[in-house]
Amino acid sequence: MDMPSYTPHPVPTKPKPSFLETMPPKTAFIGGFIAAILVLGTIGFIILGSCLLKGGCALPGQAADNNPIVVNDPADTVDTQPAGIPIVTEDDYILGDPNAPITVIEYSDIECPFCERFHPNAQQTVNEYPGQVRWVFRHFPLSFHPQAEPAANAAECAGEQGKFYEFISIMFGDQESLGMDFFKQTATKLGLKMTQFNDCLESEKYIAKIRTQAQGGAAAGVEGTPGSFVIGADGGAVPIRGALPYESVKQIIDSLLGA
């Protein structure tokens, strides 16, 4: 009788280990960590590039339109003032004549480089339009600027002693130094009462006010910094998105004044 043939099953072979499996655990961990940093750095570079191209710092997840407004016909640019813009009150810091017919409201982040570029427009505007324009600074600290909110609180503490605009001008002039030590050094330089300033600073006295201002700006349509509004005597408002040069701001003001 013929015996049945027997075909042996192939012996399974172990798959060749991958490159990562052959690496020591410590080396693999370090390699993975470096790869993650490179990925995050690439994402950050893309975000920064977008910020640079748009001329402003946008909130995460929002595509803020920060292109300059070119004023031709006032009828093309003056809109009805959005109901969401909070009215100016005694809690605001006003540069210029408090009773001026034109109001510029600047929502700003003290750590934002584009805000540093835009903010000098404030003093130049009130100098060139005496009695006609008042400038109001409001806080809009962005979450990815860790010193923005503490700097805003420090500015409010300086404002208690009448040095609000002087303080933020120094902050904008040296954004790389933002921090508690710099806040205190600046307060000393401005001749503030340090016990009062330090108590205010360390208690974060004005954080609620700062966050309320930011919420009000967001409700009015601010999506990035700087985000501002030029409001005419009739309540019409022109939004300014991004760090417009002074000449562009001047065009808007002139259109509202009928110049």
Spell out the blueprint of helices and strands.
Elements: H1 25-54, E1 57-58, H2 74-77, E2 79-80, E3 93-96, E4 102-108, H3 113-118, H4 121-128, E5 133-139, H5 148-159, H6 164-173, H7 180-189, H8 194-202, H9 207-219, E6 224-225, E7 227-231, E8 236-241, H10 246-257
Parallel strand pairs: 4-5
Antiparallel strand pairs: 1-6, 2-8, 3-5, 4-7, 7-8
Helix pairs in contact: 5-6, 5-8, 7-8
Second-tier CATH architecture of the largest domain: 3-Layer(aba) Sandwich
Helix proportion range: 40-55%
Question: Biggest sheet: strands side by side, in what order?
Answer: 2-8-7-4-5-3
Strand residues, percent: 5-15%
CATH class of the largest domain: Alpha Beta
Helix count equals 10
The H/E string reads HEHEEEHHEHHHHHEEEH
CA-to-CA gap between the ends? 117 Å
Regions with pLDDT < 50 over 5+ consecutive residues?
1-12, 42-50, 61-81
> Total strand count, please?
8
Radius of gyration: 28 Å
Main sheet makeup: 6 strands, mixed
The fold-level CATH name of the largest domain is Glutaredoxin
Question: Please, what is the average pLDDT?
Answer: 80
Which secondary-structure class do the elements indicate? alpha+beta
Q: Characterize the overall form.
A: globular
3D architecture notes:
The protein is α+β, with helices and mostly antiparallel strands. The protein folds into two domains: 30 residues; 200 residues, Glutaredoxin, CATH 3.40.30. Helix content is 44%, strand content 14%. It has ten helices and eight strands. The chain has a six-stranded mixed sheet with strand order 2-8-7-4-5-3. The N terminus is likely disordered.
